């Protein structure tokens, strides 16, 4: 840093501010802000960075900055963003900032044509440039390619994934409607897998890996979508400003009157699975008039519709029906889907009360008998069977006494509530699997030479806290590639040593002693509890470097957490205190055997088929009596392996404009 030259120094709200160094101390610098002459402040040496000569000038690739540091990188992106240049390269990585409005011509057909076949860096940074690079690499290297899209919720991952798909299918399609179908499938996936959250009105609540397949001549032949980790807790409960999956509201707002009556639909406030969240529909002033008054919740009537330029529940219902038709779903299948969605809504309205008998069990409230009838009818179940299966569970004694005797254990109100919610989650997630399967059948292909995969890592931001494994996998992979590149280019960059956090991953994932397995074991106990689980974790890992008790935290707020209420894990990036309240409950997606048998043997073919080929239904009878336990933790472990990342990944990182 040269004398008198401007530097970037920390700013409490803006991140960095320009100033000059007026004095140099042992480990801090005295800075005079350019905008507040005379008002000096101290800044740690390692947080002050040299600034470019002209801070208003911007470059298309951050690597072209004279000084590349955190502050100049952010400033470059900010300056570009203010000029509607939302994309910036960092070598072959693309950073994007969400503009939250349509930038004219940014994604037009002319722009698509412009990027076709052009090398990275010859045209301004764009998502199309990354898509084309992946295509050209696939062609030249004869190897499948992957584009990794990461960023926090609302950053623009889904939108840009769609731009990549559209670019590839438009530029390298065969002109058949397969290209269109791949894009058409999105509204259907979004209806069942997207929801309004506080951060994003159209948040994807599942991760996806979309493959566009190409033939020997490198033309698009088909597509394939893999999904993983649908957020299931949302099916039963949402926070006050959030909503359940769009399909529930679209059905309530837009279904024709005959369907509404057939499926006994009403306004969102009348359903437990909707009324603890926001019950308003998305609509404009005009489209709101198309929604009948008896379909609107009091909240909607009072506060008016939710506004979003891209969402409109009434109109989206109609658009979704068109999309279903286009991708080959007939009316019967469409109604099947709607019927099961309605069945889930009615299931949620079943209430339980203590039975008042000595058994300690519960019964379905009288007021719920109509709901029970509707639910049974919609899901193809016998009303009485549903009643019994929701309020008791069948077990097989395995120890002492007559081994092998089947006994019926009455459920307490709380347990019956959990059983009902587990059934709802199982039915809806199977329905979602079915939607994805059907979507995949719409763009079939006999054979493919290679594919370009786009991995949309939903909620990647959060993985820093709770998914070391995925983060470390990506970081390790990426770091290796970068170092290879530096070596190839002959750059004298020192090798960056990478801290291996395998011990941390093992602490969470190891068989038997890992935290997830301990939690599963807790769920299998007759009386599982969060406290007992937490104690077990501490006991099993007493001297583990990565694990400690909350009272040893540096933060007062964590020190107040009791030892049996949480644990601290020292992650690579820092220590995180995990409070374990409700861990046991949240880990439990278990469908007890009676319910699983009941739903797998539904009279309704569609419902029955949803549960066919399930790992659990196959051996449900062999597992007689044992609680058929499906843990969230285990699913999480399994689904991390789902995407197949091939070839060199092309990396896109989306930033929410709020961050910059
Ligand atoms: N390039 C863009 N141009 C215009 N608007 C955009 C763009 N990218 C995103 N948006 C707007 O931001 C909203 C949120 O983007 P998007 O749904 O793609 O975020 P996301 O990162 O996929 O979030 P989540 O992880 O919650 O699904 C979009 O609905 C759209 O309104």
UniProtKB/TrEMBL annotation:
<protein>
    <recommendedName>
        <fullName>Myosin VIb</fullName>
    </recommendedName>
</protein>
<dbReference type="Pfam" id="PF00063">
    <property type="entry name" value="Myosin_head"/>
</dbReference>
<keyword id="KW-0518">Myosin</keyword>
<dbReference type="GO" id="GO:0051015">
    <property type="term" value="F:actin filament binding"/>
</dbReference>
<dbReference type="GO" id="GO:0042491">
    <property type="term" value="P:inner ear auditory receptor cell differentiation"/>
</dbReference>
<dbReference type="InterPro" id="IPR001609">
    <property type="entry name" value="Myosin_head_motor_dom-like"/>
</dbReference>
<dbReference type="GO" id="GO:0030048">
    <property type="term" value="P:actin filament-based movement"/>
</dbReference>
<dbReference type="InterPro" id="IPR027417">
    <property type="entry name" value="P-loop_NTPase"/>
</dbReference>
<dbReference type="GO" id="GO:0005524">
    <property type="term" value="F:ATP binding"/>
</dbReference>
<feature type="binding site">
    <location>
        <begin position="151"/>
        <end position="158"/>
    </location>
    <ligand>
        <name>ATP</name>
    </ligand>
</feature>
<dbReference type="GO" id="GO:0005886">
    <property type="term" value="C:plasma membrane"/>
</dbReference>
<feature type="domain" description="Myosin N-terminal SH3-like">
    <location>
        <begin position="2"/>
        <end position="53"/>
    </location>
</feature>
<feature type="domain" description="Myosin motor">
    <location>
        <begin position="57"/>
        <end position="660"/>
    </location>
</feature>
<dbReference type="GO" id="GO:0042472">
    <property type="term" value="P:inner ear morphogenesis"/>
</dbReference>
<keyword id="KW-0505">Motor protein</keyword>
<dbReference type="InterPro" id="IPR036961">
    <property type="entry name" value="Kinesin_motor_dom_sf"/>
</dbReference>
<keyword id="KW-0009">Actin-binding</keyword>
<dbReference type="InterPro" id="IPR008989">
    <property type="entry name" value="Myosin_S1_N"/>
</dbReference>
<dbReference type="GO" id="GO:0001726">
    <property type="term" value="C:ruffle"/>
</dbReference>
<dbReference type="GO" id="GO:0030139">
    <property type="term" value="C:endocytic vesicle"/>
</dbReference>
<dbReference type="GO" id="GO:0016459">
    <property type="term" value="C:myosin complex"/>
</dbReference>
<keyword id="KW-0547">Nucleotide-binding</keyword>
<comment type="similarity">
    <text>Belongs to the TRAFAC class myosin-kinesin ATPase superfamily. Myosin family.</text>
</comment>
<dbReference type="InterPro" id="IPR004009">
    <property type="entry name" value="SH3_Myosin"/>
</dbReference>
<dbReference type="GO" id="GO:0007015">
    <property type="term" value="P:actin filament organization"/>
</dbReference>
<keyword id="KW-0067">ATP-binding</keyword>
<dbReference type="GO" id="GO:0000146">
    <property type="term" value="F:microfilament motor activity"/>
</dbReference>
């Amino acid at each position: 840093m040269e004398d008198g030259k401007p530097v970037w120094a920390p700013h409490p709200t803006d991140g960095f501010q320009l100033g000059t160094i007026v004095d140099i101390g042992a480990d801090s610098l005295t800075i005079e802000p350019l905008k507040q002459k005379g008002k000096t402040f101290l800044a740690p040496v390692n947080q002050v960075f040299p600034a470019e000569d002209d801070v208003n000038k911007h470059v298309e690739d951050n690597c072209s900055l004279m000084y590349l540091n955190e502050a100049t990188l952010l400033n470059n992106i900010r300056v570009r963003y203010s000029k509607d240049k939302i994309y910036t390269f960092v070598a072959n990585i693309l950073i994007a900032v969400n503009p939250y409005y349509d930038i004219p011509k940014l994604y037009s057909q002319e722009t698509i044509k412009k990027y076709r076949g052009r090398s990275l860096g010859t045209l301004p940074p764009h998502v199309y440039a990354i898509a084309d690079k992946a295509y050209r690499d696939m062609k030249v290297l004869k190897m499948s390619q992957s584009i990794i899209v990461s960023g926090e919720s609302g950053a623009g991952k889904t939108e840009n994934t769609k731009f990549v798909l559209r670019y590839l299918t438009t530029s390298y399609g065969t002109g058949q409607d397969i290209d269109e179908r791949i894009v058409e499938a999105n509204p259907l996936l979004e209806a069942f897998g997207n929801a309004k959250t506080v951060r994003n009105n159209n948040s994807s609540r599942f991760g996806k890996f979309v493959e566009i397949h190409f033939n020997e001549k490198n033309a698009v032949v088909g597509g394939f979508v893999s999904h993983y980790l649908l957020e299931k807790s949302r099916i039963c409960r949402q926070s006050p400003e959030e909503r359940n999956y769009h399909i529930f509201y679209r059905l309530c707002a837009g279904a024709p009157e005959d369907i509404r009556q057939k499926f006994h639909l009403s306004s969102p406030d009348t359903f437990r699975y909707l009324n603890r969240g926001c019950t308003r529909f998305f609509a404009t002033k005009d489209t709101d008039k198309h929604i009948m008054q008896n379909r609107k919740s009091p909240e909607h009537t009072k506060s008016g519709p939710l506004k979003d330029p891209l969402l409109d529940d009434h109109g989206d219902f109609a658009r979704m029906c068109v999309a279903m038709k286009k991708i080959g779903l007939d009316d019967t299948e469409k109604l099947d889907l709607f019927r099961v969605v309605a069945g889930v809504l009615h299931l949620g309205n079943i209430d339980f009360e203590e039975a008042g008998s000595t058994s300690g069990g519960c019964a379905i409230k009288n007021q719920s008998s109509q709901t029970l009838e509707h639910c049974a009818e919609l899901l193809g179940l016998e009303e009485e069977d549903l009643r019994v299966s929701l309020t008791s569970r069948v077990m097989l004694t395995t120890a002492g006494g007559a081994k092998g005797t089947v006994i019926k254990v009455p459920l307490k109100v709380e347990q019956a509530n959990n059983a009902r919610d587990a059934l709802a989650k199982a039915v809806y997630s199977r329905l979602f699997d079915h939607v994805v399967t059907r979507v995949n059948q719409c763009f079939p292909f006999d054979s493919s030479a290679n594919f370009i995969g786009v991995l949309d890592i939903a909620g990647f931001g959060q993985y820093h806290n709770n998914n070391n494994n995925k983060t470390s996998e990506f970081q390790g992979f990426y770091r290796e590639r970068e170092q290879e590149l530096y070596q190839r280019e002959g750059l004298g960059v020192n090798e960056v040593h990478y801290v291996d956090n395998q011990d941390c991953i093992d602490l969470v994932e190891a068989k038997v002693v890992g935290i997830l397995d301990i939690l599963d074991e807790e769920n299998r106990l007759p009386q599982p509890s969060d406290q007992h689980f937490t104690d077990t974790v501490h006991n099993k890992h007493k001297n583990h470097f990565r694990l400690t008790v909350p009272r040893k935290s540096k933060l007062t707020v964590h020190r107040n957490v009791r030892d049996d209420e949480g644990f601290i894990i020292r992650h690579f990036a820092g220590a995180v205190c995990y409070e374990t309240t409700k861990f046991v409950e949240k880990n439990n997606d278990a469908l007890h055997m009676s319910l699983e048998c009941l739903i797998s043997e539904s009279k309704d073919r569609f419902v029955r088929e949803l549960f066919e080929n399930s790992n659990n239904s196959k051996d449900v009878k062999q597992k007689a009596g044992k609680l058929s336990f499906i843990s969230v933790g285990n699913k999480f472990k399994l689904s991390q392996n789902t995407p197949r990342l091939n070839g060199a990944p092309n990396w896109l990182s989306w930033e929410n404009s709020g961050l910059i």
